[in-house]
Predict the structure.
Amino acid sequence: MIRIEHLSKKFGDLVVLKDITTEITKGEVVSIIGPSGTGKSTLLRCLNLLEQPSGGNIYIDGVDILDKKTDAASIRQKMNMVFQSFNLFSHLSVIENLILAPVKLKGMNKQDAQTKALELLRLVGLAEKANNYPDELSGGQQQRVAIARCLAMEPEIILFDEPTSALDPTMVREVLSVIRRLAKEGMTMAIVTHEMDFARDVSNRVLYMDEGIIYEEGSPEQIFDDPQKEKTRTFIQRIRCYTCRISSPDYDLYAMNAEIEAFCEKQILSKKSQHNLLLLVEELLQLYRPYLKTMALDITIAYSEKTERLELICESAGQKGNPLDSQDLSDDLGLMIIRNLTESISYQWLNGKNRLQLLIKTNLT
Amino acid sequence: MDLQTRTENNAIVITISGRLDTVTAPEYEKKILELIEGGNNRFVVDFEQLDFISSAGLRVLLLMAKLLKEKNGQVRLVNVKGNVYSVFEMSGFTTLFKMENSIAAALATLI
């Protein structure tokens, strides 16, 4: 139904979309997720020609919509968009908002348009508000009217651009339930959303966007339960990180401790977790100390708000080797403490770096 | 780290507060070596105000115990609790040292 090939979009020097290639087939519900500023809304706006792409092709039912000979208005009628900020005409009543486009653009008879509008208002549960004005409605009700108005043009596909992000949390559910109903009825939809549970529940496919590309895509199970790429994992599991680089054996332990404490406080980690992290970092630094004359050590503390996993990752260049396996240790006190504080320790030689990953025990935290 | 010493019942009572870690352990080690080399061989170390200990601190305690054993000396640890006690447990130190709940009790066990 929609095929996007090597789509790009620049605003001056700012490249928002680098190279997007994907397809949305009839009846599919595709959720587009990712951090703010990664081009999700720009992608939808390019599909609807609200933004002129800088490069690439978009085909709707085989028709290249970027071809100058293509009638953009007729393409737009196949594809309608629901915006974050509703965009209803405030000087028109609810029903007038719904009949305006079908009468003006599709040449529909006003009576038929009104009958159809009332049907759609019933569908979104707002028939009794037909003669009210947008200002008299709550945010959730206004967004449901916006969805009904979009349906009034009988689109083949609906693009939702963060339909619930301007809403009070109490009103999110009513809008999502209308979108869920449309999905069940087989409407083709592309939804940019920050509602992860909703995206998992309603979609056939999820696109994770980052760095101006579709960074990872898959079924909701693949993306939410088993993301393969690091940035997807960081986003899905709401991972918060603290990183620091130690490039000398004379590192300032107390300055680093203060930063780790601030990180722990920000993530509302318990005092016990904070202590264990500080202890683990110090023990590891003692093991790495002999190597710090010749190479830098990057320490990352990663805390997942979703899974509450607390991990510590040490990355260092230099010779391949796990510092925990070193034969040069004078005793195993440090190792005993490290093993007691952690649930698992894994070592990998990855991209020319030694990577030590430690999962901190949750029963201690 | 702050370290205070006093003599009580022919023993040196050391009160240590703050952190006993990579940064502070050398200072503690130096003080202990001075005391042992000065002929003292009966010690009580009070951890009441110690918030943090790492393996660097444990190593100095081990060294202290070793030196005192060579000189037929004794050491008792007092008020080992909270995070410090957890680290003792992790490293098997709870069985290596005799620990008491008060300085008086510790002094009473020194021969």
Notes: Chain A touches chain B at residues 253-254, 272, 275, 278-279, 282-283, 285-286, 331, 333-334, 336-337, 340-341 (CB under 8 Å). Chain A has a mean pLDDT of 92.
